[in-house]
Structure formats: C-alpha cells, structure tokens
Amino acid sequence: MNNENYVTRCAGCGKRPVQMSEYVDRTLAEPDRYKSPRDVVELDEGTYDPNTKLFLCTDCYIKAGTPLNADLIPTYRKVRAVMGAWTEDPEYPEEAQEGCGSNEAG
Ligand SMILES: [Zn+2]
Q1: pLDDT tens across 64-75, in order?
Q2: What's the gap in Å between 60 CA and the centre of ligand 1?
Q3: For the chain, what is the domain count?
Q4: Which of 103, 56, 54 is nearest to 76 (CA)?
Q5: 46 within some domain
C-alpha cells in the first residue's frame, strides 16, 4: 500500500491533528516529546492506524461508541478507499462535527 502521501486525519470529522486543541495542547505541554500535533497522534493516540494514517479524535471516538481497534481498521480502509490520500483541506465549521458518526451503507 502506498500511503506516503496520505494526510493524517480523524476518520470521523476529517480534521487534522493540528486543527484540534486536544493535540495542539499536548504538543505545547510536552515540546520535548512532540514536535507537532501529528506526533501526539502517531505516538500516543490509541486509535491511530499507521497503515491508513487515520485515527478517531476523542469526540468521534465517543460518538462512534468507543469501538475496538479491530473494528476501526476495516472502517479506516473503507474511508481511504473512498477518500484516497485526502489531501484537500476544506473548512470544518463547528456544526460539521454533527456528521461524525455517519456510516457508509454496504
Ligand atoms: Zn473527529
């Protein structure tokens, strides 16, 4: 799998770590450990999958019903199958978070 150009994102809301205060705050709190909010996700986020470079932020994880990683990986693969590298960066208004839990049919 060629995932070199994949952008690390939350599979639920599509945000990048740098767009989320929970990871930005951790970076600022522990600059020796984390060079960027993405480091926080890649080193410390339990839902992060290095193959798809997707994770679930705390909000989306709770909305999804705190799934096991074994259940998340197939979902991540589906998201990548649809979104590809997902390099575009549309704006995400607060309201967009309501769409976090949506599932693909089939
Ligand atoms: Zn999210």
Answers
A1: 999 999 999 999
A2: 4
A3: 1
A4: 54
A5: yes
Q: Is residue 92 part of a domain?
A: no
> In this model, does residue 5 exceed pLDDT 70?
yes
Q: Is residue 15 part of a domain?
A: yes
Q: Select from 62, 92, 60 the least CA-distant residue to 79.
A: 60
Residue 92 has pLDDT above 60, yes or no: no
Q: Tell me the residues surrounding ligand 1 (ion) with CB < 5 Å.
A: 10, 12-13, 57, 60
For ligand 1, the distance from its centroid to the CA atom of residue 64, given in whole angstroms, is: 10
CB atoms within 10 A of CB 31: 9
State mean pLDDT over 17-34: 96
pTM of model > 0.70: yes
Domain membership of residue 105 (yes or no) is no
